[in-house]
Write a structure and sequence with these properties.
Blueprint lengths: L2 H13 L4 H12 L7 H4 L2 H16 L16 H38 L1 H40 L3
Length: 158
């Protein structure tokens, strides 16, 4: 084998530009010892020998035995615990959000009561509504008074 060609392929390998066939050629070349290797190839030889040995080991090893898992319902207990924990966390967060919203509402109401101008405006609105409803009642009473006057005139009591 031409050492110059192997050196060129090793350089391509270091650059990450080799094909799978070239890498297989390098593993095959370095799998046999060469006493007269150039200095540039000596540093790559142990690595490619290792790759070749490991490839042979992988091919020679029998496949690992597959142990079937039992079909126990508690087999995935961590999944169930995680789902439960997430659900509790979401429930707690929603409860805290509602509590915070309630506190904000209370704080806003207290702020409204502490502002004298706002309290005065709210009181004026309430009194105007009350006066309007009382006026409606007074108008009805006035019509009733006219009716009573007419009834007494008809009966001749006056």
């Amino acid at each position: 084998m031409d050492y110059n060609r192997i050196t060129a392929i090793v350089e391509k390998y270091w650059e990450g530009e080799t094909t799978l066939e070239e890498e297989a050629l390098l593993r095959e070349f370095f799998s046999t010892p060469h006493p007269d290797l150039p200095e540039a190839l000596l540093e790559a030889a142990p690595m490619f020998r290792y790759f070749q040995q490991e490839a042979v080991k992988v091919l020679e090893e029998p496949p690992a035995k597959v142990v079937p898992l039992s079909a126990s319902p508690f087999r995935h207990w961590m999944k169930y615990a995680a789902v439960l924990l997430v659900a509790v966390g979401i429930g707690y967060a929603l409860k805290q959000q509602g509590h915070r919203q309630e506190q904000v509402t209370i704080a806003m109401k207290q702020e409204e009561l502490n502002d004298p101008q706002r309290a005065l405006d709210e009181t004026k609105k309430a009194l105007q509504l009350l006066a309007k409803n009382l006026n409606k009642g007074t108008a009805k009473m006035q019509k009733l008074s006219y009716f009573n006057d007419a009834a007494t005139l008809i009966e001749g009591k006056e």
